[in-house]
Amino acid sequence: xxxxxxxxxxxxxxxxxxxTQDFPAESEIGxxxxxxxxxxxxxxxxxxxxxxxxxARKISLRSKVRFVQKCAxxxxxxxxDIGCGTGYFLDAMRHHKWxxxxxxxxxxxxxxxxxxxxxxxQDSEYLFEIPAKTKDTIxxxxxxxxxxKLNETMANLHRILxxxxxxxxxxxxxKSVDARYYQADWAAYDVxxxxxxxxxxxxxxxxxxxxxxxxxxxxxxxxxxxxSMLSEKNKGTFAGSLLGLIKGGWFFLRSLFNTRQSSxxxxxxxxx
Length: 272
Known about the structure:
272 residues, alpha/beta, Rossmann fold, 7-stranded mixed sheet, 3-stranded antiparallel sheet, methyltransferase, SAM-dependent_MTases_sf, methyltransferase activity, Methyltransferase domain-containing protein
């Protein structure tokens, strides 16, 4: 999307797990994030995609808070948000009496979240320093697919989550109706920033490997619109934002009849 470089996605013929082949090392991948198209870590409202993204974020933020409150084992406890970005979700949960901590790799983003909300934001290595069984809820909103230490991260999520804790992981769905439609132009492949590419079936296997039980799956209603707009941009379509909105609406309606075809999914996990 940014560099116009090409990367290959390889898929296991047995389990279906897919990964970006020959992705840049963690020390080198930062240049692929340093672009105006990557809006999840910025408050810029410039352009139609940014503007719509932030309007959708306001609505989805309220939805996330309600959903976590509903599914968590406690009404208010300790919450860790990994890849917390500019801190809006953490701030919202704090207003519901949760004790919140964030992890964010980007130093400027951590500084912004601290200055705007006064939040406790740590760097990436903090995950491996947290004492065992101390978090009631852990959330990763479109973050796991970015993390180089995939297995180590899942092992530590299991370690620090309380026995009755709940883990929320949001991921793009490579078996969604829009992924099948756009194929290599599907924006949610987002290579090389996305290192791993999951479907519901292979993610459930992966979670079980790390001793998690999948208890529920929920679609993310705004994602097909946003991803379709970016996918049309990838294709160089004239008036791509408008066409993407129209196609996104069709993909959203299709997913209403089968959650597992949703563009993005929230997986709710508990310890086995």
